[in-house]
Amino acid sequence: MCTASDPGYFHLASLENSIDESALRSQIDSNIPTFGKVSGVDLYDASNYTKTLPDGAPCTARIFALSAERIRAMRGELRKHVKTVTPMTQCNVLAALVWIHVTRARHQRLIQHGHTNTSIGIAVNLRERVKPQLPPSYMGNMALMTRATASIARFNTESCVTSATIAPAIQAINGAISNATNAWAQRHFAYFQSIDRIIDTEISLQFNRGPDLYITSWMHFGAECEWDIPGTTSKSPEYIRRTYSPSDGGIIIMPRRRETGPCGKEAQYEVLIRLAGEDMERLMTEEGGLVSWSDRIVG
User: Fold this and answer.
1) Domains in the chain, ordered, with CATH?
2) What are the protein's GO molecular function terms (predicted)?
3) Buried-state track 248-257, b at ≥16 Cβ within 10 A, e below 16
4) Lowest mean pLDDT among 37-46, 84-93, 94-103, 286-295
5) Count of H helices and E strands in the chain?
6) pLDDT averaged over the chain?
7) Are 275 and 283 within 8 A, CB to CB?
8) Which residues, including other chains, have CB under 8 Å from residue 129's CB and lie 6 or more apart?
């Protein structure tokens, strides 16, 4: 995996001269505190919940391409009056929009099955959050999930979503991510270290036919890297796609070019949304919904 880093990006061949990954991993392990048996943590206990659809219900996947300029403008407007723990990011805005509109698409069925809250699991890059910090190019798995929770009813108060609904969703997401400090990470590392068989640990999200979803970002995967794949017309990819795997509740912000195009426009944010088929249909047809934020939809 190629990870872009500020201020530029690197050619895959540069990996030959990268820092020894095993040494960095040993450094991480040596800093994990030992607490004996560690109690469960934020998002990694088994979860039992009432599913709102049978396991065989069909699912689908679509990519929603949103204008970077419009997302930035929304962030700029919200920053004027919405307080967050750390500076509001464009990804905070993206995640909030998806969380809100997916929940609205599921709303009636969730209420019928007795669900009152919805959570979004957010994969957090810990490379710059742990101490000592790791370089952005570190190839090991350094992402854990944190969680934001909100009332389902809160996302459905307005007939058409405005900043009154978006703002509290952003605050919840921003607060959850901001909470992922070094102490938070070390507590999770210690928890995993205390488990004899790590395969027994599951993410405690009710996303599969339930009220929750999870979001992860592949934005810096390496859309500008020169992959030099034989038989292609260019060294760098025009776009990067995930293999088709319809499921329910999984959201991915797809790899994105950092430079502007020939017309001076920024690359769009492409968000892969995987949902139950009937929920996707409602997501696509909501008046003033996520489709109205999208320049195009793939799938």
Assistant:
1) 62-298 (3.30.559.10)
2) transferase activity
3) bbbbbbbbbb
4) 37-46
5) 7, 7
6) 85
7) yes
8) 180, 181, 182, 185
